[in-house]
Amino acid sequence: MKEYNIALIGKGIVGTCFLNLLNKKINEISLKYEQKIKIVAIFEKDGALIREDGINIEEFANKECNFKNRNFWYDNLKAIEKIGDLELDLIVETTPTNMKTGEPAFSHIMKALENGIDVITSNKAPFYLYPDKIKNQAKKNNCFVRIEATVASCVPCIAMKEVLCSNEIIGIRAILNGTSNYILSRMTSEGLSFEMALKEAKEHGYAESDSTLDIDGYDAAGKLVILANELMGLSKTINDVKIKGISRITPQAIELARGDGLIIKPLAMVEENSLIVEPRLIKKESPLNINGTLNIIELQTKNAGPIILMGHGAGGYEAASALMNDLYYILKERNKTNVN
Amino acid sequence: MKEYNIALIGKGIVGTCFLNLLNKKINEISLKYEQKIKIVAIFEKDGALIREDGINIEEFANKECNFKNRNFWYDNLKAIEKIGDLELDLIVETTPTNMKTGEPAFSHIMKALENGIDVITSNKAPFYLYPDKIKNQAKKNNCFVRIEATVASCVPCIAMKEVLCSNEIIGIRAILNGTSNYILSRMTSEGLSFEMALKEAKEHGYAESDSTLDIDGYDAAGKLVILANELMGLSKTINDVKIKGISRITPQAIELARGDGLIIKPLAMVEENSLIVEPRLIKKESPLNINGTLNIIELQTKNAGPIILMGHGAGGYEAASALMNDLYYILKERNKTNVN
Description:
Oligomer: homodimer
Number of helices of chain A: 13
Strand content of chain A: 15-25%
Strand order of the largest sheet of chain A: 4-3-2-1-5-6-7
Shape of chain A: globular
Distance between the termini of chain A: 16 Å
Number of strands of chain A: 13
Mean pLDDT of chain A: 94
Low-confidence stretches of chain A: none
Order of helices and strands of chain A: EHEEHEHEHEHHEHEHHHHEHEEEEH
Structural class of chain A: alpha/beta
């Protein structure tokens, strides 16, 4: 059976969940795609576990498992130095990545592509900052780059490009940031001030300690760029998005809207090829009126009106399940190429 | 360029919309898949238009266009007699079909498959009545049978089998019949009786003159069978569904539920491999609480919680756009086989 070599770069929550799912799927994959999956490297920020005959996935899928000072552990070895030297079919890029620079994910992805290695990732920043660079490099070396996990996590919105292949997508309205939606939902249902709702969101773990990029719309804007590029064939970056956050919304404004049967929601939209993230009034009965931390994506199609997708937009297993679907996709496509 | 021969069987609303979309896409298809699409036959119940060098699609895409007494029109020629004689790559089956017998669609589909011809269809009855017969025949002759249009029309729920390929679907809750949902929605919002709401639905064109199969749950049950078989790998028929309609729901029952923050919805469900269609209480805040004629499908996934799809569940162009996506899928897959 052909061997299929993977390097996992970044073993945080998503990376660990991915290893867990992979561990459960190993036999299914070998039956379905006739490939023997091996994890040959796991890179962390202070070193790497390298084992070309395959790391014991079950052992390292454990969240608490400590890598360091083990056999096959190399202190301070960086992914960027090693990617090109390993015999790899795929990298799974799940490092903590800077939202403004896209690093280190961007460099890892480019390095992999330069070496003809396929990529799956949950890191979105490289794709709203440098979409064309990645696309061109992937095309040049005939590589797959699958990024379903970058937008709305497990919700298969990017796959809609293939699924609705004959049906042009002409507009998008979405709620892509759970934190903002949670805050506005609580302000609406409980009459809380913005500050109180934010505090509550942090207490419940729905907002991080620094949630600036959620609240000011940057996070949603990045995801919107990816949707617009992938689904509508645009070539935008985050600099093309008109962004307005939710921090100036007051309980009074919400009350005023309510009087007219309207709700304020943190929308991300593509309207006539313009990308906009801002709080917008929608009708109370609109399907977009969802509460809590769900994500929702409404695709306006040319031939069949709106098609809507919804689900959990965050979470380790949610993102890992999107990565896993991308892995299956690549295995299937590569298998076809190899068989024929 | 290779020629690709299609027969359209049944030129009603859906068939006519399909011709219209196809007419607009002809050039795109030949560029993308290097196939010259020809419609070589259009079958109606009282005869057929047959032209092996290709029918003028633009002319016949017109809804009002009368076929009969034209050149190439053959009075009383039946699809079932002719399918095997034509050089066909695909049939598009959109005849008015009996919901209890699956005919004439079932015979057309089997005939096509026996002759090695791929099938796309919007007719669901064959697939909740004789799923295994169709599946086995398709497998035997290596044919594609794509049926996205049979459930929730344009909403790409059946495609989820491929999209969520690594993520097992372990349960389904859905609203698959727009008529029933419209009636219960109006009873809930306006306090109408069942009879009044049904009358209104008929006046608005949301219910047909005989809407028995909508109201008694049979239509939703058929769609549920298809989802369960396609997405969960089951092998059910409509006889396996426990079905209860909505006609006994009273305004009093709705009022009682409302007091507890609950709503009565016409749900179709797969729970622990049992198929059930019946009115159920759901929370007012549930994403399944949609109004009007929208369809919604909640897929409970093993690894990522619920994933929800929503959209127009009926309409000529909605169904035709699903057929068109299926056509693209088959062209793509057949192209791969041919190229390699």
